[in-house]
Amino acid sequence: MDTTEQVNPVVPEAEPMPAGAGIDGQETAETSSLKEASQSNAVVMEEVAARKPAPKSVNEGVPRYMPTQRREVAALALKELWQELKLDNDMPLIFASPLQRRVQLEHHPLLLQRLVTAGKKSKKAAFGQLKDWEVLQAPSYTQGIAATGEVNTLLKADMMHPAEVGERGSIPSAPYSWICYTFSSGWKALSVYFYDSDNNDSHTLNAVPPGHQDEWLAFLKLLDDLHDSIWRRERRGSIEIIGGSNELADVIKNGSYDDIVLPPATLTHVMAQRHIFDKEMLKRYAALRMPRLRKVLLIGPPGTGKTTVLKAEGAYHAGQGGLVFYVSAPPYARNTSAWQQVSLALSLAEESQLPSLVLVEDFELFVSNPTELQLILNTLDGVATPDNPAGTLLLATTNDPEKIDSRIRDRTGRIDVMIEIGLVEDVELAVRLLAHFLGDAYREKEHAPIAPKFLKYPGSHFREICIGGTMHALEHGRAEVLGSDLLWAHEVILTGKTIAEESERFIHTTTRKRGSYFGRNQ
After folding, report:
1. DSSP string covering 296-340
2. Could you tell me the pTM of the whole model?
3. Does domain 239-420 have CATH number 3.90.226.10?
4. Are 493 and 465 in contact (CB under 8 A)?
5. Lower CB density within 10 Å: C or N end of the chain?
6. 184 φ, ψ to 5°?
7. Along the chain (522 residues), what's the average pLDDT of each consecutive run of 10 residues?
8. How far apart are CA 402 and CA 421, in angstroms?
9. What are the start and end residues of each CATH 1.10.8.60 domain in the chain?
């Protein structure tokens, strides 16, 4: 196909005005004389021209090229191919398709074949039902557009996210190709999916008979529904990380309530929030015309077990076939805000239509930007609140609820419930913690009596004195951990904190005054 156009500009000659014409058009004696002189000069010029050819224009004979984009070539090729295959008497409508969720649905063999198979099983063909499809060789006049069948990337089994190194069950994305479609209602269409090097992007152009564009859109909707069913099935039980390393998913997956020692009432209160996913509760929300989103905030000092609860609840929810999102604050200077990450997770949960759990640590960091406050309020309980038909539970933590704006913290509905996970204040709980962290080394008579000495401390303190006490025992050549070892570790931790609070220990002493010029002090 010739993609250039040769242009030879022709400059029309201007008609000469009559020499010496009077105002009324009558010639005078003077004009008559001038006319004779002009005719004489013309004869001379003709003789000169006969002897020496006139110089040619610098543009004459030089082709001027008009740039042609690959998209234009593809569109012209679709028209040419349409006529070659005699698909319809009328010339087709040619238009582009959007890229749908990283997959060009109308060019993915897996989706097309599944749609054809579903149509054969159906007693009545749906509007837009595909009967058959065929991959065509790229026409010779397309300059190699979509000629190799290249697959742009590999996808996870959900056909939505790019596959990673070591992935199992990956699926090729749609190949660049030319396809002819045959529909159950008897008409045909063409489509080309290609990489456009002019714009560094992938595009799809479709050729559809006039009057069948609505059925083509219905065909795309059937493919989209089929794709939804695949990625929803594959996403059940998955843990997705937003704004952080995907390795965090394994950390959450390994969480367990076996690692948690909290008052039974506290655990019961946390677990009760799962009822947002019950069908009866979802119906109640819908009846009240409320978005099916519950917001729960775990509050308490550092080290009390809030993060451990988040991990355990995430692992439990994924194990039940739900979808889990863990939100990390974006790195500094990235072109997004912390709240936008939370908002994205809530939107993805709504889109998934799966029971979704959104986990957020240090919630105060995500809602601290005053310029985003109105957006935050609207998202938590306003016109922009996402509504997931299967329910969404936002489970967040904070060490300092006072840093959260009162319009968020104190307004019922923006935070539905706050659950305190506090310091250890019960002797029985303290004994349970010692037994948990000492494991086989725990001895009731040896360790239970000293448990009251560790009250008013977080659970992480119990973990550290058990680890430190065990190391102290090994240092003295003992496998048995004594109560004195735990008390030693306890004192070491307290001493370190006391020293850290003495700020004057870490202030550099004033340097001596240096001598001024010629040794004189200033």
Report:
1. EEEE-STTSSHHHHHHHHHHHHHHTT-EEEEE-PPPTT-SS-HHH
2. 0.75
3. no
4. yes
5. C
6. -60, -30
7. 43 45 46 49 49 50 62 93 93 83 83 95 94 96 91 88 88 94 96 88 93 96 93 92 91 95 96 97 96 97 96 97 93 78 95 96 94 94 94 97 94 94 96 97 97 97 97 96 97 93 70 48 48
8. 16
9. 427-501
Q: Which residues pair with 259 in a beta bridge?
A: none
CB 170 within 8 A of CB 155: yes
Closest alpha carbon to 249 in 156, 386, 127, 350: 156
Strands 130-136 and 177-183, how do they pair?
antiparallel
Task: Indicate the fold that domain 427-501 takes in CATH.
Answer: Helicase, Ruva Protein; domain 3 (1.10.8)
The pLDDT of residue 196 is: 85
DSSP state of 123: S
Q: Cα separation of 313 and 440, whole Å?
A: 27
Query: How far, rounded to the nearest angstrom, does the alpha carbon of residue 47 sit from its chain's CA centroid?
Result: 79
What 3 state SS string does 399-456 have?
A: CCHHHCCHHHHCCECCECEEEECCCECCHHHHHHHHHHHHHHHCCHHHHHHHHHHHCC
Q: Helix and strand tally (H, E) in the chain?
A: 16, 13
Q: Which residue has the tokens 């050819």?
A: 53
| Residue 197: predicted pLDDT | 82
What is the CB-side half-sphere exposure of residue 236 using CA atoms within 13 A?
9
Q: What residue type is assigned to position 364 of the chain?
A: E
CATH 3.40.50.300 residue ranges in the chain? Answer: 239-420
Cα-Cα-Cα-Cα dihedral sign, residues 203, 209, 213, 219: negative
Burial class (CB in 10 A: 0-12, 13-18, 19+), 36: exposed
- Exposed, middle or buried: residue 393 (CB in 10 Å: 0-12, 13-18, 19+)? buried
Measured between its terminal Cα atoms, the distance across the chain in Å is 88
Place of tokens 């063999």: 109
| Residue 185 near residue 125, CB atoms below 8 Å | yes
What is the largest distance, in Å, between two alpha-carbon atoms of the chain?
144
Give the contacts of 299 (CB within 8 A, at least 6 positions apart). Answer: 306, 397, 398, 399, 401, 418, 419, 420, 421
